[in-house]
Specification:
Strand content: 15-25%
Order of helices and strands: HEEEHH
Oligomer: single chain
Strand order of the largest sheet: 1-2-3
Number of helices: 3
Radius of gyration: 15 Å
Helix content: 25-40%
C-alpha cells in the first residue's frame, strides 16, 4: 500500500514562531534569548534541543488555521 506524500508546509517553524511570538526582555530592556511571549500574553521557553517545535505546539493547538491566517496577513501587507 502506498502512502500519499505529506504536503509541504507553506511556512517554516521559524517563520511561524516569528509571526506568533516576540522575544521577551528583562527589566533593563535587554532581550532574553530563550523566552518568547505569544500574542495571547503567555511566555514560553524555546529549548535548544527542541528547536522551535516547543513554540509550535501551542500554535497548532490554539490556531489550527495558522497557515491561512499568516497567508492573509502576508497578502494584506
Amino acid at each position: 500500500m502506498l502512502r500519499a506524500p505529506r504536503p509541504r508546509p507553506s511556512f517554516s517553524n521559524v517563520q511561524v514562531s516569528a509571526y506568533f511570538f516576540t522575544p521577551c526582555s528583562n527589566e533593563n530592556a535587554e532581550p532574553v534569548p530563550e523566552y518568547y511571549r505569544g500574542r495571547c500574553g503567555t511566555v514560553r521557553k524555546q529549548t535548544r534541543r527542541n528547536g522551535f517545535s516547543n513554540l509550535m505546539q501551542p500554535v497548532r493547538r490554539e490556531h489550527p488555521s495558522f497557515e491561512a491566517e499568516m497567508r492573509t496577513a502576508t497578502t494584506a501587507e
